[in-house]
């Protein structure tokens, strides 16, 4: 029969008296037999007839035994309520609930006890350390416990365990030490980078430290250092020919330094990129990379950094801030092109384009940022200056509208000249280069946009049911971008682009997106007036429909985009068909019923604008009979109107609605709008427009800005109360509720105050009695004290029960 | 007196103790000087106090006969001496039971509850009349406060009146029984004219009245309000201004928590505020302006800061209750010179509030905003865009998909602001939302169903409803929404064909379809009536299950009185029509109750009798808080008592003592 292993007793549970320790130390010899133990023999006996158990097998056997025992234990043990004690998660992911053992078996054999005793002194030493570990590394002592278990192995394992412990204890110490070291190295480096390449190397070696915390410290400080010490140019490794040449000492020194620096930097970047793959170091690594990108995008390995950062624009975990970090870095990269001359921009944009391409436009959860960064792009149209204009005229995609120059002309002449010369001198050599770069950037951007658009259109034809509102996460940003860069789009694409937009505008995308499509189309048209001869009629139809479903009061952005749409589509475009104008006027008036005051104002402003511009449309303000519904007499002015006599409110096509024959009844109702300004304006339009000429015309954007109340406040202001009140000494009672009151109340008439009196009397008496009670109680207490004191004083005189009796009597009375 | 004799006995006991056990006495002297000294001091004091009182004892211990002779003397001869005596008695009655610390020069001892009652009732109910008679003021004629000084006898009467009012106000603050308070208040009401002469007392009175108005039960609250109103009207603009401010603040502080049970009460309070704001429109405009501005500032803060806390300041009952109050006030006094200009900021605030946190969980709040907007629009006859607030709700995905959270309990949108997350998914919630949205939409459109521009007005709501019909999966909603569509467009369009005026002819526009409006023949109007009826039923079912079971009939009675009063005013027919289903409901309920009035009056009387009986017991229970100071070891002392009172064994110790003391008293 195999002897059972001694039950696993937790180190903390074993109590060792000083006596035990003393005994063991005194009689070390007693334990000597342990060394002479015939382990083989024991093993043999334990394992019975199987002599081939050895080594690993032996261990396995004991493990098996332990498992059986554990199972038994499990039965004996009460599972602690999981609420009371959190379970321990093992490295393999299983949960273990703590158990309380019902009763502990006492070690039975003498031999084992002895063995235990021998270990105990060492164990006690560990205890203190053990406890400190437990707080952080719960799993380790457990694992260790399992290892320590068999008697035979224990001595061998001791040093290992100890080492581990020491290591842990020293970690904190070490961290402090390392921190100091990093700080020292950094200051040294910053003070004189050329002379302290050694410390740079050391710092980089720290970056691959085992301890994560130290590693992060090192990474961050290196980031700061590199931001400072990296030169403003790209280091080019010297060619062989250059190496062969004889150089002065200084040049050699610089060369050496640059070479080391480059090598170190490479190492660092590699560490960072590696770090960004691991879960623990990702955040820090990304932070460092972004910091470097912002500060030194021009330097070597910039492309490596970009390549590492771009995927983070589409991090799957929105809780982490990767997306914001990365997008911020890229935005600043785009904005500060001077630092890198635009190369990094091209690189980044192309990378993003590739990324979108790879992910098939299905960039997941937080898609906004992927393309949002494009919005930060600015295309300096100034690159191609006048001299070169002649050379690169035909294919240029840039509009040569130079705001900066315009501003300069108004400025001081001399300064202008100087600045101009300076700029010419500085930009002339690489103007071509930059143009090329920008072209590349633009093409990458538009490639991305078109890809997204294409993807948005494709599924809507293929799988109708699946396309819900959010199926094209990138579409919104994409349209925004198109709006921004619409003037840069090549004419060749416009036709296709418009076709796509048209499809989108009629499709199942959200109302906002449809609106954006329309606006984008009009913008593009406007930018390429001469080049295009496309009829935008369909977009008018879509916009006419979109107006029905728009709800622009949700927030400031939607308010503004609505105003912009009005501006672009109805204000700035070419001459409209009268019928169409009338239809839009009609629709806008109807729509302004249901908008907030600022958007309603914008709509009314547009109505006024249109009515002023198209005099014929003022017919809408007059009722020619029939209230806008009856047949219209064929007028000599518009013979073509004969077949469009009746106005249809629900006609989807503005051109066919026959709005010209309707009456703008809306104004009648809008005059009683709650907002005084809206009411005023509509009254103005209805009444005086025909006679007066307005010179000052507000744009819808201005109107929205002027009357928006998204941030609170009242526009226009509320009528103030009169500053002085007419004071009256008294008011004449007008139909006071008194009559009602009396009739209701007098029914219950006089109240009996006797109860109240009794109540008050009782309270007074109660108080008096209570006071007395307190008094008596103190008396009794005093008496008791008196008595006990007397007893202690050993007077022994017994009598005087008078006190308490008296009090009792009183209470009874 | 008994109290005194107790002390004398105690003193004698002490003397005896001194004789029998000088050692213990000595010990006491050594260890507890305080105890003995306190006793002796008290005894001395008592002795000092005793001498004069014992001398006057026969004179001052009042009997009914004394009081009656005084009353006759005052009533018939206007005797000043008797009046002084009476007032002295009243004063001591009012200060009764406040202990010896109240040093009064002429102190009457009242031993009998009959005397007490007689004094109180006579003074409170008749003295005001007597004063007025003495001042030669006719009851009917209203007298301004300033006129008092011109009356010759005023100077002579001045101290008497002051004493009367001071005592009465004192006792008012002491009383706890609602009926007594309301009686006292009611009796003090005629004296308000005089109160103007005593500003300090007037303030005290107002303070007490506001307290009772906001905390007392309905009838008391009503009496208190009429006192406040009288006061404000008597004392002129300054007083009215401060009253208007205080009443709003009190209202806001009592509207912290709204539930099915407190809602009627808050509505009653709001009605009171509306009433007070009708006294002087100029003053009301000023107050309303500042308070509405405050609300707007809170909202602006929420809009700009966008923190959770700032949202909470808007999305709470206090904010909503004040908004509702102002809507009521503004709707009550419309017209160019009245509060009409305030409708604009209110409407804007309401719009902003409804849009502040656009989630389905806050739909009840949004719905309340929509109801208020509708009411405001109807009362002021202005156009307010309510439709987007409502149609936006239908756009939420929660309204279109079939509910996943099971049936769920029905939600009363009037008594909640926010619903829990699981509730949003229930069918009951969805149904309630769609129903109320459609009702309110119908309400909004009906307001303009006789307008020339109705077809255009309805264009967008109908387009969106059509879209909703297309998108929703619930057949019932589809049917409901469809019923609303295109009811009225044809009607107005046809009528419009015949007219010859233009949009700018505002008079002609106003008179369009006037006859039909008066006859109520528009199809949408009729449909809306059906909807209203349905909504009322729905709400009644809800309220009946929750509210009526708990509420006593009196509160409804009073509440409906109030709303009837509001209805009686000339230009408020429209308001009354839209004045919230609740109030109408209460009216209806009231009528029903009237039919059953006989039985209920009986039960009321019974209740009152019970209350009377409970009088003594109530006193006991009120004392209990103080009694908690005594600890457990009292029980040893109470041992002896226990045998006396069998019942007492089950009750707390303090009660026992109380009882025993009462018995003691009775035996004496």
UniProtKB/TrEMBL annotation, chain A:
Transmembrane segments: 588-611
Subcellular location: Nucleus, Nucleolus
The protein's name: CCAAT-binding factor domain-containing protein
Primary location class: nucleus
All residue ranges annotated as the CCAAT-binding factor domain in the record: 515-681
Keywords: Coiled coil, Membrane, Nucleus, Transmembrane, Transmembrane helix
UniProt GO molecular function: chromatin binding
Any single Gene Ontology cellular-component annotation: nucleolus
Boundaries of every Nucleolar complex-associated protein 3 N-terminal domain copy: 178-268
Pfam assignment, any one: NOC3p
Compositional bias ranges of the Basic residues kind: 797-813
Gene Ontology biological process: DNA replication initiation
Entry similarity comment: Belongs to the CBF/MAK21 family.
Origin superkingdom: Eukaryota
Disordered: annotated span: 97-152, 794-813
TrEMBL record, chain B:
Region annotated Disordered, chain positions: 37-60, 586-668
Annotated GO biological process: ribosomal large subunit biogenesis
Keywords associated with the record: Nucleus
Keyword match Nucleus: yes
Stretches with biased composition (Acidic residues): 619-638
Any one GO CC term of the record: nucleoplasm
Subcellular location: Nucleus
Basic residues bias: start-end ranges: 653-668
Domain of life of the organism encoding this protein: Eukaryota
Composition-biased stretches (Basic and acidic residues): 49-60, 602-616, 639-649
The keyword Nucleus belongs to this UniProt entry's keyword annotation: yes
Main localization, broad class: nucleus
Sequence similarity: Belongs to the NOC2 family.
Protein name, as recorded: Nucleolar complex protein 2 homolog
Record organism: Selaginella moellendorffii
Taxonomy of the source species: Eukaryota, Viridiplantae, Streptophyta, Embryophyta, Tracheophyta
């Amino acid at each position: 029969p195999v002897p059972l292993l001694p039950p696993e007793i937790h180190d903390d549970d074993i109590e060792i008296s000083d006596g035990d320790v003393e005994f063991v130390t005194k009689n070390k010899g007693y334990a000597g037999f342990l060394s002479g133990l015939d382990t083989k023999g024991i093993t043999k006996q334990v394992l019975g007839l199987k002599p081939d158990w050895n080594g690993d097998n032996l261990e396995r056997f004991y493990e098996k035994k332990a498992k059986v025992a554990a199972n038994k234990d499990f039965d004996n043990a009460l599972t602690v309520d999981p609420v009371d004690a959190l379970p321990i998660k093992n490295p393999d992911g299983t949960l273990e609930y703590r158990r309380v053992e019902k009763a502990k078996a006492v070690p039975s054999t003498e031999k084992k006890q002895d063995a235990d005793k021998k270990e105990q002194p060492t164990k006690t030493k560990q205890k203190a350390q053990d406890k400190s570990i437990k707080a952080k590394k719960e799993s380790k002592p457990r694992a260790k416990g399992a290892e320590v278990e068999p008697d035979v192995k224990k001595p061998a394992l001791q040093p290992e365990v100890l080492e581990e412990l020491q290591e842990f204890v020293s970690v904190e110490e070490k961290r402090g030490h390392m921190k100091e070291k990093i700080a020292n190295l950094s200051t040294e480096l910053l003070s004189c980078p050329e002379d302290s390449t050694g410390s740079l190397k050391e710092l980089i070696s720290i970056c691959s430290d085992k301890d994560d915390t130290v590693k992060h410290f090192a990474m961050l400080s290196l980031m700061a250092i590199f931001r400072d010490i990296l030169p403003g140019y790209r280091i080019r490794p010297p060619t062989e020919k250059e190496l062969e040449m004889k150089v002065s000492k200084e040049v050699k020194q610089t060369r050496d330094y640059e070479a080391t620096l480059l090598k170190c930097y490479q190492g660092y970047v590699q560490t960072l990129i590696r770090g960004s793959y691991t879960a623990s170091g990702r955040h820090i690594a990304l932070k460092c990379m972004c910091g470097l990108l912002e500060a030194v995008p021009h330097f070597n390995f910039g492309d490596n950094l970009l390549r590492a950062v771009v995927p983070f624009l589409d991090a799957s975990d929105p809780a982490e801030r990767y997306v914001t970090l990365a997008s911020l870095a890229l935005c600043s990269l785009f904005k500060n092109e001077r630092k890198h001359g635009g190369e990094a921009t091209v690189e980044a944009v192309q990378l993003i384009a590739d990324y979108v391409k790879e992910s098939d436009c299905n960039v997941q959860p937080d898609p906004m940022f992927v393309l949002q960064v494009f919005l930060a792009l600015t295309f300096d149209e100034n690159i191609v200056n006048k001299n070169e204009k002649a050379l690169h005229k035909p294919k240029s995609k840039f509009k040569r509208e130079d705001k900066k120059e315009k501003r300069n002309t108004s400025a001081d002449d001399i300064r202008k000249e100087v600045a101009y010369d300076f700029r010419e001198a500085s930009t002339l050599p690489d103007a071509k280069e930059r143009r090329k770069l920008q072209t590349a950037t633009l093409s990458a951007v538009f490639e991305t946009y078109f890809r997204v658009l294409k993807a948005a259109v494709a599924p809507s034809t293929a799988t109708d049911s699946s396309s819900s509102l959010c199926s094209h996460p990138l579409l919104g940003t994409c349209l925004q971008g198109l709006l921004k860069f619409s003037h840069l789009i090549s004419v060749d694409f416009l036709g296709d682009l418009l076709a796509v937009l048209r499809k989108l505008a009629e499709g199942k995308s959200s109302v906002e997106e449809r609106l954006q499509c329309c606006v984008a189309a009009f913008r593009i048209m406007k930018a390429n007036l001469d080049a295009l001869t496309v009829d935008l009629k369909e977009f008018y139809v879509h916009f006419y429909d979109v107006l029905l479903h728009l709800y622009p009061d949700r927030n400031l952005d939607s308010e503004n985009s609505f105003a912009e749409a009005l501006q672009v589509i109805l204000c700035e475009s070419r001459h409209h068909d009268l019928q169409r104008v009338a239809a839009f006027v009609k629709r806008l008036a109807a729509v302004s019923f249901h908008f907030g005051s600022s958007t309603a104002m914008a709509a009314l402003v547009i109505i006024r604008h249109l009515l002023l511009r198209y005099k014929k449309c003022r017919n809408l303000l007059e009722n020619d009979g029939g209230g806008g519904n009856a047949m219209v007499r064929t007028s000599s002015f518009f013979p073509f109107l004969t077949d469009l006599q009746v106005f249809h409110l629900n006609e989807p096509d503005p051109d066919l609605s026959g709005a010209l024959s309707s009456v703008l009844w809306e104004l009648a109702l809008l005059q009683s709008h709650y907002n005084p300004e809206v009411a005023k304006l509509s009254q103005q339009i209805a009444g005086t427009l025909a006679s007066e000429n307005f010179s000052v015309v507000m744009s819808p954007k201005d109107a929205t800005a002027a009357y928006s109340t998204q941030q609170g406040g009242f526009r226009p202001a509320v009528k103030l109360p009169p500053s002085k009140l007419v004071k009256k000494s008294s008011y004449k009672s007008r139909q006071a509720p008194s009559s009602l009151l009396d009739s209701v109340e007098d029914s219950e008439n006089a109240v009996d105050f006797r109860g109240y009196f009794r109540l008050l009397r009782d309270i007074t008496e109660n108080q008096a009695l209570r006071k007395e009670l307190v008094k008596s109680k103190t008396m009794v207490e005093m008496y008791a004290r008196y008595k006990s004191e007397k007893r202690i004083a050993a007077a022994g005189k017994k009598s005087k029960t008078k006190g308490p009796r008296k009090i009792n009597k009183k209470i009874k009375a | 007196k008994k109290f005194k004799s107790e002390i004398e006995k105690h003193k004698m006991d002490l003397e005896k103790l001194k004789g029998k056990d000088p050692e213990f006495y000595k010990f006491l002297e050594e260890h507890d000087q305080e105890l003995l000294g306190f006793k002796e001091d008290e005894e001395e004091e008592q002795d000092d106090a005793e001498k004069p009182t014992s001398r006057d004892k026969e004179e001052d211990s009042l009997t009914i006969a004394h009081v009656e002779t005084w009353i006759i003397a005052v009533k018939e001869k206007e005797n000043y001496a008797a009046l002084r005596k009476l007032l002295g008695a009243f004063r001591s009655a009012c200060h009764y039971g406040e202990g010896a610390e109240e040093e009064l020069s002429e102190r009457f001892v009242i031993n009998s509850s009959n005397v007490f009652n007689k004094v109180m009732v006579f003074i409170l109910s008749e003295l005001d009349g007597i004063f007025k008679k003495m001042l030669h003021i006719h009851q009917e004629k209203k007298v301004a406060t300033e006129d008092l000084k011109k009356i010759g006898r005023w100077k002579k009467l001045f101290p008497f009146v002051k004493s009367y009012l001071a005592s009465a106000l004192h006792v008012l603050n002491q009383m706890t029984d609602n009926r007594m308070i309301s009686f006292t208040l009611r009796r003090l009401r005629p004296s308000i004219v005089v109160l103007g002469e005593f500003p300090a007392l007037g303030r005290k009175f107002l303070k007490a009245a506001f307290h009772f108005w906001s905390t007392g039960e309905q009838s008391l609250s009503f009496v208190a309000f009429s006192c406040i109103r009288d006061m404000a009207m008597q004392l002129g603009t300054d007083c009215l201004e401060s009253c208007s401010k205080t009443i709003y603040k009190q209202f806001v502080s009592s509207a912290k928590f709204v539930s099915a049970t407190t809602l009627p009460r808050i509505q009653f309070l709001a009605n009171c505020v509306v009433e007070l704001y009708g006294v002087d429109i100029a003053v009301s405009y000023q107050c309303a302006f500042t308070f509405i501005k405050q609300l707007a500032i809170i909202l602006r803060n929420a809009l700009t800061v966008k923190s959770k806390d700032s949202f909470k300041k808007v999305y709470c009952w206090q904010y909503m209750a004040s908004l509702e109050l102002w809507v009521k006030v503004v709707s009550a006094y419309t017209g160019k010179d009245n509060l009409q200009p305030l409708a604009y900021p209110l409407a804007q605030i309401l719009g902003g509030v409804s849009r502040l946190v656009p989630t389905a969980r806050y739909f009840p709040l949004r719905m309340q905003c929509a109801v208020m907007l509708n009411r405001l629009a109807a009362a002021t006859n202005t156009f307010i865009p309510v439709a987007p607030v409502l149609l936006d709700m239908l756009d939420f995905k929660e309204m279109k998909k079939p509910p996943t959270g099971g049936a769920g309990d029905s939600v009363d949108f009037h008594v909640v602001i926010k619903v829990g997350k699981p509730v949003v998914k229930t069918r009951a919630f969805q149904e309630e939302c769609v129903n109320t949205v459609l009702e309110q939409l119908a309400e909004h459109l009906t307001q303009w169903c006789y307008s020339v521009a109705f077809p255009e007005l309805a264009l967008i709501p109908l387009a969106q409803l059509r879209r909703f019909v297309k998108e929703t999966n619930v057949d019932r909603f589809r049917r409901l929404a469809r019923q609303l569509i295109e009811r009225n467009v044809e009607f107005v369009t046809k009528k419009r064909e015949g007219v010859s005026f233009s949009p700018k002819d505002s008079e002609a526009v106003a008179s369009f379809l006037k006859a039909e409006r008066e006859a109520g023949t528009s199809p949408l109007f009729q449909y809306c009536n059906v909807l209203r009826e349905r909504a009322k039923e729905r709400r009644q079912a809800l309220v009946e299950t929750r509210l009526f079971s708990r509420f006593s009939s009196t509160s409804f009675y009073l509440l409906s009185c109030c709303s009837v009063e509001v209805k009686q005013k000339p230009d408020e027919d429209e308001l009354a029509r839209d004045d919230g289903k609740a109030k109408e409901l209460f009216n209806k309920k009231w009528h029903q109750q009237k039919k059953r009035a006989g039985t209920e009056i009986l039960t009321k009387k019974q209740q009152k009798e019970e209350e009377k009986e409970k009088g003594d017991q109530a006193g006991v229970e009120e004392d209990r808080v103080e009694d908690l100071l005594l600890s457990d070891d009292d029980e040893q002392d109470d041992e002896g008592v226990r045998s006396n009172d069998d019942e007492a064994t089950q009750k707390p110790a303090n009660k026992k003592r109380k009882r025993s003391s009462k018995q003691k008293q009775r035996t004496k």
